[in-house]
Amino acid sequence: MTREELIAQLDAWHEEDEFQQIVDEINLIPTSFIDDELAVHLGRALNNLGRYKEALKWFLKIDEEGRNNPLWHFRVGYAYYYLDQNEEAAQEFEIAHQMDPEDEDTLTFLEWSRNEAAAQPEDN
């Protein structure tokens, strides 16, 4: 399978909600060969499977150029949100919102994260 075919297959599985297929296929690739594009696919699939810590690990491996994307910040915020790390989530959603002010999902999660962060008791 060529790289183009692999990416097309990963996209197709995403559209079909076959997230475990994505994880299984990428896990066949040696870690040293998983570049930013594959890390995004893997992180997104792991987020969709509720495996947020693993997703975050892959998102945080992505280089600075890959991080200059509102969708990257949204996905990282999403993982933080579901790990109950609401302050970190709010920070990421805020960046995503600044980069793409029209995205409704970002605004929704930004509001939820802020509200839940405000409601959390301070650690003493």
From TrEMBL:
TPR repeat start and end residues: 70-103
Source organism, top-level taxon: Bacteria
Gene3D superfamilies, alphabetized: Tetratricopeptide repeat domain (1.25.40.10)
Matching PROSITE patterns: TPR (PS50005)
Alphabetical list of Pfam families matching this protein: TPR_8
UniProt keyword terms in alphabetical order: TPR repeat
Keyword Transmembrane in annotation: no
Protein name (Swiss-Prot/TrEMBL): Tetratricopeptide (TPR) repeat protein
Source organism of this protein record: Fontibacillus solani
